[in-house]
Amino acid sequence: MNKLKIITIFGTRPEAIKMAPLIKEFEKRRNIENKICVTAQHREMLDQVLKLFNIIPDFDLNIMKSNQTLTGITSRVLQGLEEVFDRENPDLVLVHGDTTTTFAGALAAFYKKIRVGHVEAGLRTYDKYFPFPEEMNRKLTGAIADLHFAPTSGSRENLLREGVPMNEIFVTGNTVIDSMKFTVDKDYVFNNNELNDIDYHKSKVIMVTAHRRENWGEGIENICNALKKIVEENKEVEVIYLVHLNPKVKDIVYKILGNINRVHLLNPLDTKETHNLMDRCYMVMTDSGGLQEEAPHLGKPVLVLRNVTERPEAIKAGTVKLVGINKEDIVRLASELISDSSKYDVMSRAVNPYGDGKASGRIAAAILQYFNIEKGEYEEFI
Description:
Protein name: UDP-N-acetylglucosamine 2-epimerase (non-hydrolyzing)
Strand order of the largest sheet: 3-2-1-4-5-6-7
EC number: 5.1.3.14
Distance between the termini: 32 Å
Family: Belongs to the UDP-N-acetylglucosamine 2-epimerase family.
Order of helices and strands: EHEHEHEHEHEHEHHEHEHEHEHEHEHHH
Largest sheet: 7 strands, parallel
Number of helices: 16
GO molecular function, one term: UDP-N-acetylglucosamine 2-epimerase activity
Radius of gyration: 20 Å
Helix content: 40-55%
CATH architecture of the largest domain: 3-Layer(aba) Sandwich
Shape: globular
Strand content: 15-25%
CATH topology of the largest domain: Rossmann fold
Number of domains: 2
Structural class: alpha/beta
InterPro entries: UDP_GlcNAc_Epimerase_2_dom, WecB-like
CATH superfamily of the largest domain: Glycogen Phosphorylase B
């Protein structure tokens, strides 16, 4: 084998953010030929990341449709990847995380008897409907994968309990920490002037994202009503809510928060804007998975607006608190961090358990070791 041929597959912005540094690492490896295939499960937000990291896909399935369903996404990815795999015949297919692209990509590779590597493997809630459909996407991908790149030792333990052999699991840290080396700039000037006009030293700015499928309806309503009360009771607080474009989220958010002073409702920002806003805010409130990993790296406490999380390491480390979606609980825990500097300091100074910025190198080394191309370079993340 002269070069190991890999096809890296992703389709959404979160996947792209976390795969981008790995792609850059592969570019430096003389023994790896990496082809990039995007499904464009999310078109516009994916393209923002591709532009930021100067990534040009070799294949673009461009599957996104208006009002797309999970069934439609899955079937279009399977059909598109069959052609790509027949043409390229790769040695390894890499997928990331928990999206529908992830599961369909792994399944398409399995149908062709191509080895699968799963980046960010082993996260679990053990409730197949929370988060939906992500929990089952991860588990089904894990059942197919040959190589499991677990971000933490806790994720490895989940995989071992499910019968994955120890020698197929590599603890690497999370590649999102690698990405932030490219994106965070202390002198950054926002493209959005509304963000430039905020005094981040004088105000306690809360960055908010909340859009997950299981929170649609009553959950989003509770979160918005909690934010309204937090702002009304704390004059030093400003809220920046990055509102998902889905009408099932956007309509509720604008109805409840559209005319509230010190609440800024913005469309989703590109990756660099988001990371630099996170760097300047006081704390983060979110139902996102990725922000639970990213914000602690910048010393920002995170309140998770979900009832369960597949990232318990951050709770154990003290960088994250699981709040749920009850209005009064959200208000109470947010108010504690706003008013009690000692509780804030404990969370902001806790060590992020998700990485040291070297995950991509570990993954590349582990792959080359697995295929007996290079030996002895992989060292586990502790």
